[in-house]
Amino acid sequence: MKSLKPRLLTAAIGIPFVVLVIFLSELWRPTVHLIVGAVTALMICEYLHANKLLKVVPLSVSCIAAAFLLTTLCTTPYVFLVLFAFMTAVFVSIIALHRTLSFPQLAYAGFGTLLISFGMSAMVLACSNPVSVTFFFFVVLMLPWMADAGGFFVGASMGRHKLCPEISPKKTVEGAIGGILFCMIAAVALGLIYQFWVMPDVSVNLFSLLIVGFFDAVLSIVGDLSFSLIKRHLGIKDYGSIFPGHGGFLDRFDSIIFTAPIVVAVGQFLPFLSLG
């Protein structure tokens, strides 16, 4: 497990930062919007840079601005206006730069911006729950990372059968199963901790958490493989290098782009928390 040390270093730096963000979010709710919006904008920077599109200023500025605004304003009526402005800006870009900018490049930038912004906006929506910001921070962030950790440790120690070797040679079927089990156990454990120790006056729906734990683990694999496929197509190892052992923001949050929406979707039908 030679990659364990940089992973632990990243955790040692990242966990205190997440705790600080959670603390500030409990004091002032818009902190969630601003922090997630800034991270989303940085993810778009990495995504565009991977395909050498960051230097195409009209397009990159439109994508970065749209990512920040779509995420920070996702709970307001202004989302449609931002989408309309973004759609107009990207097509003005290809008209103005039609000699050097191809439609596949436009599609890569536009679709990627919408996909990443959509996924990260779901994190903001989930954490906008009035009962507890902290609980949903843990659900959105911790569960995919537990699936990743479970997959890493089980795969490294017991992995024999490759899951998708052409895209991600290190992923195994055993690791995927371990990740699913770790994620489901972590989801139920989180619910029990909140139910009996943190917020005993709030009812926690363990069934909802169990469902989310399963789908989070599955979708985290889909997200990781999807963005790994893009990296292979572009011939790069990581989108960035800010996190030792993990790459950039997009490498670290690629699974959350797919898992955060399932938290919002399940919560609409089976609320996780209820007062009384």
In short:
The protein is mainly alpha-helical and 276 residues long.
Describe the model.
The structure is a single chain. The protein is mainly α and 276 residues long. The chain has two domains: 22-27 and 131-276, no CATH class; 30-127, no CATH class. Helices cover 75% and strands 5% of the residues. Helix 2 packs antiparallel against helix 5. It is globular and about 60 Å long. 44% of the residues are buried. The model has no long low-confidence stretch (mean pLDDT 90).
Q: Biggest sheet: strands, sense, closure?
A: 2 strands, antiparallel
Judged by helices, strands and strand pairing, the structural class is mainly alpha
Task: Give the termini separation.
Answer: 46 Å
Specify the number of helices: 9
Fold blueprint:
Layout: H1 4-27, H2 30-50, H3 57-72, H4 79-96, H5 103-127, H6 133-158, E1 162-164, E2 168-172, H7 173-198, E3 202-204, H8 206-234, H9 249-269, E4 273-275
Antiparallel strand pairs: 1-2, 3-4
Keywords for this structure?
276 residues; mainly alpha; 2 domains; two-stranded antiparallel sheet; two-stranded antiparallel ribbon; globular
